[in-house]
Amino acid sequence: MAIWLTLCGVVVLLAYLLGSFPTGYLAGKLLKGIDIREVGSGSTGATNVLRTLGKGPGAFVLFVDCLKGVLAINLVYALFNFAPGYNVIPTNLNVQLWQPWLVTLVGLGAILGHSKSIFLGFTGGKSVATSLGILLAMNWQVGLATLGVFGVVIAISKIVSLSSISGAVAVSILMVVFQQPLAYVLFSIAGGLYVIIRHRSNIERLLTGTEPKIGQKVETESQQTA
Asked: Phi/psi class of residue 54: alpha, beta or left (left: φ > 0; alpha: ψ in -120 to 50)?
């Protein structure tokens, strides 16, 4: 059992390190020699990269940050696929019960890594793209449905932060609708709340009507989002 618990701990740690990979920061340094945290909203997320570096870099950062979430969850699937061959899974372990909880811990680890990267002094982005990757790897129907909510809201409002918050709220409902395990439902609640909290400055601007829309020129740092 000790070996198994150690392996699970290693997977959670690896997920955090994957989430911590500073995609947006590296894009800023390599393309313009800037610290993306010192411009725009200060976030390393795809939206701040889009506004600072352009569509191409923004799309690339979005893709990689999403991929980080997918890879993190697949670490768990890989562990459960290969571990039986090495006889490290305890014989009395209920795999169907254990796996969703480990997936949940790994997902939370990746989200935390993206927003509190060990490589960036525990700063980072708002974990939206990484959360989407996690959802797609957990259950692709829930992931696509959440993306659909995001897409509808952004098509109507043209506001990225409002769309992200809407997706964070919808995901818990979608987990229940698609009859996902309790661990995934709790993950969606915890992860969704975390994403919303990370958007608290955006919420303040939404309430005052100063949150910028896609393509809108932002005049001051305090008016920007990520």
From this structure: left
